[in-house]
Amino acid sequence: EDKVVQSPLSLVVHEGDTVTLNCSYEVTNFRSLLWYKQEKKAPTFLFMLTSSGIEKKSGRLSSILDKKELSSILNITATQTGDSAIYLCVLSSGSARQLTFGSGTQLTVLP
Amino acid sequence: NAGVMQNPRHLVRRRGQEARLRCSPMKGHSHVYWYRQLPEEGLKFMVYLQKENIIDESGMPKERFSAEFPKEGPSILRIQQVVRGDSAAYFCASSGAGDAEAFFGQGTRLTVV
Asked: Considering only CB atoms, which chain B residues are within 8 Å of A50?
């Protein structure tokens, strides 16, 4: 059974700090790894990673996949209070492209 | 291009009633996924559908739950004879063909009283 483990489970930082969120996975038939941000509503898409070693960037957020280590990290620089959310790491796998969710990292950014 | 639309946003049902949750995928998307988020738990996969086909329903409870995605109209998640334990947020996501990313709807919050 595919598995996604995220760490830390929760993180409290102050505005301006840089954070690194970790995701490790076990998978039978890897297709892609996705990161989502979930506030009080639906998860919003951040990144989709399919190739190892290629960093994806969007503003202050960036992410990279390491297929050898079966892991991915999500970096957020110069954090803002609006970054407070649950960050979900999601694995897409198998011929049916089933999505397996990690438990999420609860990030709290204090002013 | 409207996003994934789910309705209703909130649904209250008494025990034993039926709940019907609707999901209209993004324009051009033919893949629909349903997820359930129980209180204090993460999102759990329920079912993956393409038009008129159930591709993977390994996450669906064996009884009372069913899903469809007809040729015309939204995808429907149907829960018969609801129980208190069905109270949860139900999210729908859609994607285009291939390994495109999935986009989520706003969810339907089902409360069973």
From this structure: 99
Q: Which two tokens stand for residue B24?
A: 């209209």
- Residue numbers in A near B26 (CB within 8 A): none
Tell me how long chain A is.
Answer: 111
Which residue in the block uniquely carries the two structure tokens 């490790």? A24
Instruction: Tell me the count of A-B CB pairs closer than 8 A.
Output: 53
Asked if pLDDT for residue A58 goes beyond 80, the answer is: yes
| Pairwise CA distance, residues A83 & A12, whole Å | 11
Other beta carbons less than 10 A from residue B85's beta carbon: 9
Among A42-46, A55-59, A66-70, A103-107, the range scoring the smallest mean pLDDT is A42-46
CB B4 within 8 A of CB B23: yes
Q: What is the mean pLDDT of residues A71-91?
A: 95
Tell me if B3 sits within 8 A of B93, measured CB to CB.
Answer: no
The distance of A42 to chain B (nearest Cα, Å) reads 5
Distance of CA B68 to the CA centre of its chain: 9
